[in-house]
């Protein structure tokens, strides 16, 4: 690998933002260019000003082929009419809604030299106490943007710019770029010696194939959404909702909807694996009805594999995960939500001028981004201590044998210390004060991370207990029973509500508002 002087970074989210600093502090690169397809830095922490699009092409989302490359003009540079496609070409909309907060303590979400500010919302304080470790999404967004808007780094970034194609031509990387304008798109080409991919992998929804789902959505456009497109509980007021997914997004959305939707909220969790960190306690809420896997949908009736069904369904929310795609890198395979050939989830073994930051699954991810960014910068600067290619291949083969050839391959849990220290050793120490230093792994990071998870699980327990108590009180009031110490009189109980098809309930009793949703842990 020859001397690298020109580096392109794709993505200015949390991973890309710390990569900029790691590259700049190596003081060896003449050109550092960052291409961010959104209008600002922050990645998935940047909110949207417009409503999310309706889901289209459900078969492609089910087969993980939805994020296709767009046509490129034959002659570049070029100016073309604003790109119009049936769905966003890169699914660039975020999963932000107004009251979203982190579900992980701010300490393990901070970098070693930069900390997330201690700004807390009243809602979070009400739920978790005055020292709540969780942060509103705007705090994280501002934190990431602050990392980019310092030391002149903002001059490196081209916003509203999508890398439509990255291809190796000789010893150079040729990047075909498209900048979105209000009325037209600008296309051009730039060349680099190396590329850092920091695009993240929580963008393209995965929608499982369900018989009748496409017809359900086409009959009532917008009735099927992915959890990424959830914009708050109010859009489901007085709607009968089925939520699919047993992980943290499905849990948060299901609990949130008991405040506004027709009751119960139906959660398809039976037979699905609970979240590794959070478990499934949220689904014990008395106004959530656990259901088995959906077998098919007939009209507005959702039928489950255990023979039960729910009629007159208004909305289906699919908290079913994401598909990692790299449509701009046709030479790189993405298989089973991982990239084969990545040593330590960072260095592309076939061509070490291509490196990745963020190709890991949940758990201490922000800190892992920093370690990966420093390793990537050292590799490109020629200062890293990488083993021979055959040893790198053996590492991957051993990991596939241990973890599997799927998303679990990228799961660092529970071997955090081993991974952090391995990456730190490969990166090495700064030379003569040049480069970003990585501190030794601190076990308290994991403990604080786990303590934050327990805090959220206890919150669900409190919400569940409060809702059960309120239901009992409502039953007593409806039956005319006088609680102990109550010497007042009671009016006759109201008549029972009319029957609802398939036993669907319509009762709504206010409970403590659920205000959090997933982000750092997916």
From TrEMBL:
Entry keyword set: Coiled coil, FAD, Flavoprotein, Oxidoreductase
Keyword Aminoacyl-tRNA synthetase (UniProt): no
InterPro entries named among the record's database cross-references: FAD/NAD-bd_sf (IPR036188), Flavin_mOase-like (IPR020946), FMO-like (IPR050346)
Domain of life: Eukaryota
Coiled-coil ranges from the UniProt annotation: 450-477
Region of interest: Disordered: 68-90, 478-522
Pfam family, one: FMO-like
SUPFAM superfamilies linked to this entry: FAD/NAD(P)-binding domain
GO MF terms, alphabetically ordered: flavin adenine dinucleotide binding; N,N-dimethylaniline monooxygenase activity; NADP binding
Biased composition (Pro residues): 491-500
Keyword set includes tRNA processing: no
Annotated transmembrane regions: none
Record PANTHER family: DIMETHYLANILINE MONOOXYGENASE
Family to which this protein belongs: Belongs to the FMO family.
Descriptive protein name: Thiol-specific monooxygenase
Lineage: Eukaryota, Fungi, Dikarya, Ascomycota, Pezizomycotina
